Amino acid sequence: MESNFIEILILVLILYLFATVIKLSGQIKGMKHTLTQLSKGMNIPESPIDPEIKRLIEEGNDVKAIKRARELFGYTLLEGKKYVDDMKIEYK
């Protein structure tokens, strides 16, 4: 009986934490959207340009440039690739 109560309590706690994470994720996406709109309105680049990433791109080391962008900015793999691809287009 006591074991079932503890299991149910743990399940409720996990569900609560999961719901909180989803809510926070939505708030972060909203803030990111707001910051994007502000940066576009003020003509501020989306992300600062790191000289090491620029050098890696110029040397043709796209994989290392993507890895560095992910380390610096916390990008996902797709976001890092998009960042490097955008930099390649901008500096050609």
Secondary structure tally, helices: 4
Q: Specify the overall morphology.
A: elongated
N-to-C series of helices and strands: HHHH
Provide the domain count.
2
Biggest sheet descriptor? none
Q: Give unreliable regions as ranges.
A: none
Helix content: over 70%
Instruction: Tell me the radius of gyration.
Output: 20 Å
Total strand segments: 0
Structural class: mainly alpha
Cα distance spanning the termini: 69 Å
What do the pLDDT scores average to?
A: 86
Percent of residues in beta strands: under 5%
How would you describe this protein?
The protein is an all-alpha fold. The chain folds into two domains: 44 residues; 47 residues. The protein is 80% helix and 0% strand. It has four helices and no strands. Helix 2 runs antiparallel to helix 3 and helix 3 packs across helix 4. It starts with a helix and ends with a helix.
How would you concisely characterize the structure shown here?
With 92 residues, the chain is an all-alpha fold.
